[in-house]
Amino acid sequence: MALQAALLPSTLSVPKKGNLAAVVKDTAFLTVPQKLRVPSLSVRAQAAATAPVATPGASTSTKDAKKTLRQGAVVITGASSGLGLAAAKALAETGKWHVVMACRDFLKAAKAAKGAGMAEGSYTIMHLDLASLDSVRQFVDNFRRAGMPLDSLVCNAAIYRPTARTPTFTADGYEMSVGVNHLGHFLLARLLLDDLRKSDYPSRRLIILGSITGNTNTLAGNIPPKAGLGDLRGLAGGLRGQNGSAMIDGAESFDGAKAYKDSKICNMLTMQELHRRYHEETDITFASLYPGCIATTGLFREHIPLFRLLFPPFQKFITKGFVSEAESGKRLAQVVSDPSLTKSGVYWSWNRDSASFENQLSQEASDPEKARKLWEISEKLVGLA
Ligand code: NDP
Ligand code: PMR
């Protein structure tokens, strides 16, 4: 059956497109948008739920009543397409958020923002290639030099190489899917934690995208190849491929689909470890989410054409797990800014009526011992320990 053939993990190999789009380094000096200038009086003490939004340039006037809130600043990685772009648009359109689109392809991001109808001045594009730890550090430097506050960080970018039977590697020599989806974001989140701490915004949030396919307590998570980190021996060995394994669990052969799903477990474990280590002390909200199956995005660009053709109708009419890019963007925007989603350490999902709920992670994706071990190995790999 064509449907089954296309949707079941394929052993077919197809010519692979270049993984990384042409990179445009943009180091243009950035100025802080007026609305983002931090008011002299901190508003952190107020509940996000009750704080009205500032008109441009407005600031807090008295200690108690009529608090106004400056515009928030949110960094979204991979905002040049799919979910990241839709969330950037949804947040920018509210006027409450200035969106920093952290993207590897500056021109693509600029076109995407324009094409989506995002108003000039509602966003800033900054270069970030998560496949290079130097680029991550450079981004953090550039962001700080731009003088903006950081109120929310969304680790959204990802690559998925479902048909790859041989690994590719980041600039630092780590397998690409885990390198980009997990290690790049791990370093980014760790470095920007300081900036989130400094923010005077009432509800500061750090969000990392997870997925149903990384959770083996679901039907979708049981479609082979199943996610599984094993004892992390491949990661501890540096995911290099040549003299060791390119897979986190240390498997000899490379499986691109599994590498993606493994990276999503890492994303969900990292969010929980951040919560355990920093929530109480900083009051930052750490969250992850499964936004629904956004079957039309660029994530599936390397899949076989038949899959790309059949996957959206399969998700729409058979699993009924399909969501449009616009709807998923609203969901992610909710996790960034909805006053009712301030609980930390949660993996959010949505039911068929698009109502959010706290979802259960699989045993592995919520294993605190594994999260600690993952944290310690990742620290070494990104040069933080
Ligand atoms: P897209 O492919 O549309 O978007 C991925 C984004 O990541 C693109 O902007 C891409 O940039 C960027 N990116 C890829 N590699 C790098 C890199 N090296 N450095 C910086 N940016 C990079 O996919 P989605 O919108 O579907 O995925 C977004 C998130 O949602 C991912 O974390 C994914 O795991 C998650 N998710 C998606 C689901 C789905 O059904 N689609 C379901 C569950 C979770 P460029 O435009 O230059 O390629
Ligand atoms: Mg899956 C309840 C059913 C359900 C849901 C919500 C998803 C989501 N999928 C479901 C079921 C099935 N899928 C079934 C029954 C099959 C076998 C026919 C199936 C197959 C399948 C494939 C081959 N599904 C896939 C693939 C992919 O390549 C996608 C993937 O694993 O990406 C890592 C995928 C997905 N299914 C989903 C979601 C959300 C994805 C993609 C994205 C992701 O996890 O980020």
From TrEMBL:
Gene Ontology CC: one annotated term: chloroplast
Any one Gene Ontology molecular-function term assigned to this protein's record: protochlorophyllide reductase activity
Keyword Transit peptide: yes
Reactions catalysed: chlorophyllide a + NADP(+) = protochlorophyllide a + NADPH + H(+)
BP GO terms, sorted: chlorophyll biosynthetic process; photosynthesis
Keyword set, alphabetical order: Chlorophyll biosynthesis, Chloroplast, NADP, Oxidoreductase, Photosynthesis, Plastid, Transit peptide
Residues passing through the membrane, by range: none
Main location: plastid
Class of enzymatic activity (EC top level): oxidoreductase
EC number(s) reported in the record: 1.3.1.33
Pathway the protein acts in: Porphyrin-containing compound metabolism; chlorophyll biosynthesis
Keyword Cytoplasm in annotation: no
Location of this chain's protein in the cell: Plastid, Chloroplast
PANTHER family on file: PROTOCHLOROPHYLLIDE REDUCTASE A, CHLOROPLASTIC, PROTOCHLOROPHYLLIDE REDUCTASE C, CHLOROPLASTIC
Protein family: Belongs to the short-chain dehydrogenases/reductases (SDR) family. POR subfamily.
Function: Phototransformation of protochlorophyllide (Pchlide) to chlorophyllide (Chlide).
Name assigned to this protein: NADPH-protochlorophyllide oxidoreductase
